[in-house]
């Protein structure tokens, strides 16, 4: 199961991207670094509708150069912008990106454009040699079959709306909100740590207790930071995506699963902390578009929820966590789980 997958055609590469990101991107630039003939890191960034070409290109390259072993790059542009004109969408941005990548000694080797109806080579506009192709060529590719065989499944965004807990739990959750004493926080941190090690130990009672603990801002922030580190003095920098070392991504996945489980017992109006936790972990994984949607749901659950507003600002300003910038620390979707 750990043998390398043979990625040999453009369709294989285009099939590879959604499996690595966990979604099929929309209105996005995806840069894949190359280490010789091997694929390296995968970076997704929103399409540059409002960004000056050179500034956008320099930002993208600053992220891509975190892969110090990169010798080249590939580019996939996902867009439904008008493709009927002779000029490709975002032509100036792509040209600026090619220039910056060449300067960084990781030149662009090839590029493709994927819409909701077709895909084609981006750099070649001669329809005789580079015609528009069916999306079925991607789904039917050997690369896609190999990823699915290993257990990968492109699931995308999970809408938690059906996970509305019984209204009868509202008072119980409120009663479990800590008073702010350190002892209360420490007790819930210990309980949380045990569940991150053994999520199957979660019961309805413990779920209600943790749902209540997450209603207290300080306790909530400590529980979130504990997913990455057990050093409480570092929780502010951790929430901003600044920390040493590679996260235990299996622990992160477990935390997200637990947060969804907590929402199953939590009624509307009390779910914003869990939605923020899930969105924040998506942001750490480099999936800003997913993160933004969870923060939006948090604000719909509790109007003016401050943590959701602050975290949404990180996404809106295009800020990335340190681990996203470093391929050695970045999230890699588990295959064959």
Short summary:
The chain has 337 residues and is an alpha+beta fold. The chain contains 15 helices and six strands.
Outline the secondary-structure elements.
Blueprint: H1 10-21, E1 28-35, E2 38-46, H2 53-64, E3 72-78, H3 91-103, E4 108-114, E5 118-121, E6 133-134, H4 136-139, H5 142-149, H6 170-175, H7 182-197, H8 204-213, H9 217-226, H10 235-239, H11 249-263, H12 272-284, H13 288-301, H14 306-316, H15 322-325
Question: What would your notes on this structure say?
Answer:
By secondary structure, this protein is of the alpha+beta class. The chain has two domains: 10-149, Cytidine Deaminase, domain 2 (3-Layer(aba) Sandwich); 167-325, no CATH class. The protein is 45% helix and 11% strand. It has a six-stranded mixed sheet, with helices on both faces. β1 (28-35) and β2 form a beta hairpin. α1 runs parallel beside α5 (142-149), α7 crosses α8 and α12 runs antiparallel to α13. The N and C termini lie close together (11 Å). The mean pLDDT is 87.
CA gyration radius, whole angstroms: 22 Å
* Ends apart, CA distance between termini: 11 Å
Largest sheet: 6 strands, mixed
Q: Which strand order do you get reading across the main beta sheet?
A: 2-1-3-4-5-6
Q: How many structurally independent domains?
A: 2
Spans of at least 5 consecutive residues with low confidence? none
Per the principal axes of the C-alpha atoms, what is the gross shape? elongated
**Strand pairing plus helix content: what structural class?**
alpha+beta
Helix content percent band: 40-55%
With helices defined by DSSP (H or I, 4 residues minimum), what is the helix count? 15
Number of strands: 6
What does the average pLDDT come to? Answer: 87
Element string (H = helix, E = strand): HEEHEHEEEHHHHHHHHHHHH
**Beta-strand content:** 5-15%
Protein name: DUF4192 domain-containing protein
């Amino acid at each position: 199961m750990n043998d390398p997958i043979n990625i040999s055609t453009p369709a294989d590469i285009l099939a590879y991207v959604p499996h690595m990101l966990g979604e099929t991107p929309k209105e996005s630039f995806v840069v894949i670094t190359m280490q010789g003939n091997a694929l390296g890191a995968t970076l997704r960034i929103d399409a540059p509708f409002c960004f000056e070409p050179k500034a956008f290109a320099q930002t993208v390259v600053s992220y891509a150069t975190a892969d110090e072993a990169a010798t080249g790059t590939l580019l996939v542009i996902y867009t439904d912008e008008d493709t009927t004109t002779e000029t490709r969408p975002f032509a100036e941005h792509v040209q600026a990106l090619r220039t910056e990548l060449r300067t960084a000694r990781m030149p662009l080797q090839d590029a493709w454009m994927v819409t909701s109806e077709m895909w084609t080579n981006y750099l070649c506009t001669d329809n005789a040699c580079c015609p528009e192709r069916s999306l079925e060529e991607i789904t039917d590719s050997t690369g896609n079959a190999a990823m699915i065989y290993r257990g990968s499944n492109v699931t995308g965004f999970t809408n938690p709306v059906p996970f509305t807990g019984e209204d009868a739990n509202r008072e119980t959750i409120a009663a479990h909100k800590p008073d702010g004493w350190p002892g209360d926080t420490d007790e819930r941190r210990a309980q949380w740590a045990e569940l991150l090690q053994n999520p199957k130990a979660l019961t309805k009672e413990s779920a209600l207790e943790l749902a209540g603990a997450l209603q207290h801002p300080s306790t909530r922030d400590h529980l979130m930071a504990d997913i990455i580190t057990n050093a409480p003095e570092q929780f502010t920098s951790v929430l901003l995506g600044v920390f040493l070392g590679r996260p235990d991504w299996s622990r992160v996945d477990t935390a997200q699963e637990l947060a969804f489980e907590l929402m199953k017992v939590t009624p509307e109006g009390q779910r914003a902390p869990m939605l923020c936790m899930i969105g924040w972990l998506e942001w750490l994984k480099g999936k800003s578009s997913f993160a933004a949607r969870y923060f939006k749901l948090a604000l719909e659950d509790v109007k003016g929820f401050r943590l959701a507003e602050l975290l949404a600002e990180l996404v809106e300003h295009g800020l990335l966590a340190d681990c996203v910038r470093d391929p050695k620390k970045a999230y890699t979707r588990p295959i064959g789980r």
